[in-house]
Amino acid sequence: MATTAPALDPTYPDPTSTIEIGEDDDSFSDTSSLSANSDTTSLTSSVFNYVYENGRRYASHRTGNYVLPNDEEEQERLDLTHHVYCALLGGELHLAPLDNPKNILDLGCGTGIWAIEMGDLYPECEIIGTDLSPIQPVFVPPNVSFEVDNWEDEWLFGRKFDMIHMRMLQGAVKDFDVIFTKAYDALAPGGWIELVECHMDPYSEDGTYERLATGLHTYFSSLLSASAKLGCVMDQTPQLQQKIKSAGFTNVSERTYKAPVGAWPKDHKMKEVGRTMYGICMIGAESYGLALFTRVLGMDEEEAQKIIEGARRDLGRRGVHTVFKQHIIIGQKPFETETTGTKETKTTTGKEEVE
Question: What is the DSSP secondary-structure string of 26-41?
Fold first, then answer.
């Protein structure tokens, strides 16, 4: 079993260093021409019984708790998010040190883009992606399949996994302790969990966000208040590493990356990440906020949109150097070997310290 996580891209800026500010241009990537393949597998008609409100489309299953839309605009945002994480990882799809995996679960797979690319990377591995919405493409690698499933229900996969991948589930999970326990039970000994989350507490290194982005302050204050009231807290990032340890995982480690919003970084790779993050945030402001503000906080659509537009103005405002921290946490289920009447736990130890 391999034990070393992929090395950092040597050409990518040190994630612990300050982002150098360069010339801020307006040539953000045009996200209007991008679209995700919305073809889906053959499923029962009830799965497609979507809910439409305030001009957006939502999954009908567990609509009250899950507040993000599933329409084409949201699918575009999910694929842009995948691009950002691939860029931050220097082209890698994961940090968990996998060695000839046979079964992988992508929990909350969205458009399925990560699962599909993992299927190409590991052609001998069976990969299952699950989501509340059947928005994944039809034509996928033969070793990739998708299921409509709710991770809060009982897990009935009938197999043990070598890796379970979770990306951007905050705001949709009521109890991460329960999810991590289920993941632990569903993993084979030596298997890995990998959690990818954005810290929903933006900041700036030069104080411009704190001083100038009043619209974003109002937006995130409302967002966190609504998610807490719903019972699916939007920002549990600081507690997630400990929760994974408490579930029984060993070799738990965390990497933190900086993702700027906008084209203001001097470094060309950070600038490209910033352009993409701008597109993600401009779409995401409504994706995350609209249903929470109207359903949970009781706002009408006009009031909710005023807060969303205030956030968007600050996102596109020159001189505001907003940064989001991105966290990737991995942990391993211990190997267990039977000895004379007792259980002896054996774990691997990574050669590389992941911060």
Answer: S----GGG--------
